[in-house]
Amino acid sequence: MSSDRRDTTSSEVHTANTSATPTGSGSHRGPLQPLPGRIIALVATGITVVTTVLVVVLWWAGTAGLSGAALVTARFDALRTGLSIGLGGGGIFALYLAWRRQHATEVGLVQKERDQADVGRAYELQREVAEHAREDAASRRVTDLYAKAVEQLGSDKAPVRLGGLYALERLAQDNEPQRQTVVNVLCAYLRMPYVMPGDPPEDHSDKAALAEYHEQVQEREVRLTAQRLLSVHLRPVHSKPEAFWPHIDLDLTGALLIEFDLAHCQPHHVLFTRAIFTGNARFERTTFSGDVSFESTSFTCGASFRQAKFEGRASFQKANFSAHASFYWTRFDRKSDFTTTRFHTTASFDETTFKSEVHFLEAKFDGRVTFCAARFLSYSEFKRATFHEEALFNHVTFTATGFIDAVFHGDASFAEEGHHLVPETSFSYTTEPMRGATFGVDANFTGTTFSGGIRLEGALAAHPISHRTSWPIGWTTADEHKAVDHLDGEWHELVKLQLS
Question: Can you give the pLDDT at residue 155?
Fold first, then answer.
């Protein structure tokens, strides 16, 4: 394709060069040819002869029969008339010569401008040919480097694979349009199946077992290098600003990620669907400018999203957090979804801001969870959520919420002044934010205010009622207690007080 382009352009250059050569024919008239010197001499001689003849004729014809002063006057007039005619003829001829010279000059200038334009076009075409040749050469070079680097990644030797990673990094750093492609290759490499090395085999183990273990250890180093290259170039806080690669998407679907560190980075769209994070996963102060998916993701150790920003949609559906999950001071600008997410130990959402709707539908919190001073600026759903340990929602601002059929096995605290549940009456399910909720231990609503009221029909509290329990104003528990089919122990129904 590039050779066809070069052939076509070369033909254009040849045509331009040919058109730039004067041919003496064409649509425009060429300059007048200069008069030969002999013609100018003949004309001058002719004018002189004619002038002399006129003077002689006027001399003799005009002075016949005259004498004295009249004769002198007549001869002078004849001489003056003849010379005037001669000079006039010479002047006309001189004007004609000047006109020819001027005409030739003007035509020459026009032709020179046309020649210069033709030369300019020819030069531009030549420059384009050279530029295309350079681009083709650069493209071939990039393609060759890319192919060799990818080939290195397929090597069975870890040092060669490491060399391939660094070759791809250099290629992306020097060729901005290739950065997303290189990142895609790194992500594809990390998505390939991998088994972490277990405990080192005994010294007396067979060579095959030792070789397999060493290969797994070396491959781990290769993968850590690939992860490090991603984080280094997605982090704007860097000693070399030019090392930052903006607007990069990551697709790590199903990848096994080891001690993954994306803290302070700024990726765009990110896919961690079904990924497995072994070791701590760090996303502190990370800014996700596009949509993010952690659906069905497994965090085997701690996961920190402290002060992270999700500017696009964020999904944690069916994610599993095996250790502490920190979302302290995190910001969700668009819809976030924690439907059926499982928090096996503690979780913190303190001072987190949800600017758009958030769903914790059927989420399970096996350990202590805190939402202290969190702000829910749109609808928040905790329908059928299960809290096995203490759940703290102190100082929280709810714009509209639903805890329908939620289960609190541990203490539930919605205390402190400044906590607001503001139902949106245009949505029926938000007019009953805790309908059918189950409170297994203490429930603290001290100082809580409910703009628009709250309904707790169908809610249950475990028997006996703790003296520390404080129900919303206008609600209390029924005196009698009873057994509930699907729950252990005895339970009291929450009833609304009858105002006198």
Answer: 93
